[in-house]
From TrEMBL:
InterPro entries: DDE_dom (IPR032874), IS_Transposase (IPR052183), RNaseH_sf (IPR036397). One of its GO terms (molecular function) is nucleic acid binding. This is IS6 family transposase. It comes from the Bacteria. PANTHER family: BLL1675 PROTEIN. Residues 1-72 form the DDE domain.
Length: 104
């Protein structure tokens, strides 16, 4: 999972992307904000469309962590503790090589 700040038709927006282990984009969302609410909305959208992942690798963004923790709380409250998503945060989540491959 990653997000970046991009300009679309003169307007700035955050592009949230879910990428599989092969580097293919499986879902995306544009948002005016980069916060817990936006991250939670993105994870819900991605999970609704693609199913629950076992693990999510992301950078150390506090908003993204909070968003995924919200999903895990919902799973616990639903009695689905065994389905909680494993969260792996890395200091530098570098995806340019993946983006370069997709643009070729």
């Amino acid at each position: 999972m990653d997000e970046t700040y991009i300009k679309i038709k003169g307007e700035w927006a955050y592009l949230y992307r879910a990428v599989d282990k092969f580097g293919d984009t499986v879902d995306f969302m544009l948002s005016e904000r980069r916060d817990e609410v936006a991250a939670t909305a993105f994870f819900r959208q991605a999970i609704d469309g693609n199913g629950l992942p076992e693990k999510v690798v992301m950078d150390k963004s506090g908003a993204n962590l909070a968003g995924l923790e919200n999903i895990n709380v919902l799973l616990v409250l639903a009695g689905l503790l065994c389905l909680m998503v494993d969260i792996c945060q890395v200091k530098y989540y570098d995806t340019p090589h993946i983006l370069d491959q997709q643009l070729r």
